[in-house]
Amino acid sequence: MEATSQNRGPCPVCSSMDRTRRHFGIIACTACAAFFRRSFGQQYLCNAEKKCIIMHDRKFFCRACRYSSCVKAGMRRDLVRKQKNNPRHPASLETQLPRNLPEMLSKFSKILNIHHDELLKYYVDGVEDTIAQKQNDNVMNALQIKSIVELHKISEMENNVVLDDCLNCPGVDVLEQDDVEVLLKYFKFVNIWVYSALASSSTCLEQFPEQTGDNSNQLFDFLHQVRSTLGSSLVRLNLNIFEYAAFKSFCIWNLKFFGTSTAMKIVAEEHHIGITWALRKYYKESTNMTEVEIAARIGDITLQLLTVSDIFHDMIKLYHQVGISF
Fold first, then answer.
1. Which residues of 267-300 are buried (b: 16+ CB within 10 A; e: fewer)?
2. Which residues form the Nuclear receptor domain (predicted)?
């Protein structure tokens, strides 16, 4: 995947200098690229004279003029169409989905522009993609690292991987650039540490490599914390792919550390409502669980967010101590 660079020049749509890379045929920022992708097939109306100024430091955009600016800058609609027509759902996943879904899904998020069932499928796709990517690239589990150098490598590698995940996330197109930057941090945290805890949940949690380096105590204390808290809980919960996909969404949109805008809080609430509804629907149609059992199961899953918040806080502290930017 192409690495990002701050030397590519400003985004031709909104003039942002942050995280510009190639999207849909041009060099643009992630926020404008996400907006362009999510706007495929949509029709917007300008309430002015179709001459609205699009700048990254403005809190509100005219969507019609922003989309027009994307097209004028050279973003190609056919590249969006190719992505839309290239389903990310493996055949094996489709066979696992409940077959008795009604033709017209009853729950739809206007803010995210997606049905709640499809929102859960988006996260399931992301989990399967993450598993495949880490296996194909032979990526080391973060809980098995032996040094600060290896932690640096894993962190740098994930910087490039999470961009597309964040870009494709429903609701990103309505967020400001600062919010997108924050969301990238949460995606990165989940892809490294929450996934590693899940992947290590069936392995021995008490074996640690020999400590080397001045910061080894802090590093291995943190690894032990992740394994003994979240790792142990995931062993007990034994989440299937739908449950872990929902848990991933809850972790990403927990929004407990960095300051965020009102718009991002609204989008986060839409994700929480949509995923919770879809997960309950999955339980009702694919299991024999009662309403009480469903509520207890979802409660057990969401209760882990307290542990995740503690791990995120201590990860930030560790990264600062060892000189890793985040």
1. bbebbbebbbbbbbbbbeeeeeeeeeebeebbee
2. 8-82
